[in-house]
Amino acid sequence: MTAALAPQAWPFDLSLLPPSAHLVGGSVRDALLGRTADYLDLDFVLPEAAVETARTIARRHGAGFVVLDATHQIARVVFDQATVDFAQQVGDTLTEDLHRRDFTVNAIAYHPHTEKIFDPLRGYADLQRRVLRMVSPDNLADDPLRLLRAYRQAAQLGFALDSQTRKTIHQLSPLLGRMAAERVRGELDCLLSLPAGTHLLQLAWQDGLLQDWLPQLQSQHIQSLGAIDRAAQTLGKLCPDLAQQFPDWLKEHTPPGCHRSWLKAAKLSQVIPEAVVAAEAELVRLKYSRAEQQAVLAILRGWQYLRSHPEGELSCRQQYHLFKITGPSFVGLALLACALGYPQEPLLALGDRFLTPHDPVAHPHPLVSGRDVMAHLNLRPGPRIGVLLAAVELAHAEGQVRTAAEALTWLETEG
Description:
About 0% of the residues have low confidence. The chain has a seven-stranded mixed sheet. The protein has a two-stranded parallel ribbon with strand order 8-9. Helices cover about 50% and strands about 10% of the residues. A hairpin with a 4-residue loop joins strand 3 and strand 4.
């Protein structure tokens, strides 16, 4: 029995859970599939006293507590290694509650006190068939985000979409346009991040779901996503140290539920307009953070720079300018360049530079400060100081100077 269906592994005592409570949703589905996770995410449905039960458990165990929805009586208890939600049952019976859910595989309930499964919609049979099937068209229409979530969950689970479910989604697809951008972006991010996401994103596009959100998307853009997936495997073999950074992101805290990786950033650069100004507007419309906007736009600018130098082997100065354009986003650029046919040998050479922390071309660092320059050249503060510092940085990258003393002497004649 996996942890989600094993009360002894839960972070609270089963005796605090009313006998009428049932575990529902993704945790039951994943447990029945044998899927495990380091962090427990449990959802309980109770016919009454859902918020009071959550509050009691939080107090008993010294856990975090928050009411998520007072109107619908939904509360959350947060432990170190688990999040547990308690919701008031929708309808007069558990069966009615389950009939209001999105897909049959998410409409299976588990009664922890008796260890029995309750499955009125035959979701377990769909689990065995590995098929995602809707509960009803009305349930999808009630929350149109479920239309896109079907493709995301199919990608996560490795499931096929039921044919009637796909037909219904296609019919209801215009409804997705009225959803909040943040919610749609979360589903798109997951599809861009998952190995199986490219195929499911293509199906979602074919079924008319993405026209409002990614209006410029065409089949060639989706082909680029597949090429990026393959490029990740290629670079994993040719340059494993660089490939280790594909799942990483900028050194900022990533909120729960966000999918931030250089793999996703590279893919995202291919589903928005190619022109940087239009791309930025699209990223803003989709409510991406400023950090994510800058990372993706740096990939686009870097790729445009590479394409403007088709000779392949960049000079030292050109390499310096490329790394100034991309910064940490070079990881995403490497994926994109490999996918779109940039020559491997010069690309790997650039990767070697990027992986060398003190390389003056890929990671330029100041040999002198503005104060040093002003004192040595007897200059007053002003814009020219920044210009001189940039010139020293480039001279260092090209090997013209190597020490602070050389830099100051060089400035006397070249600055």
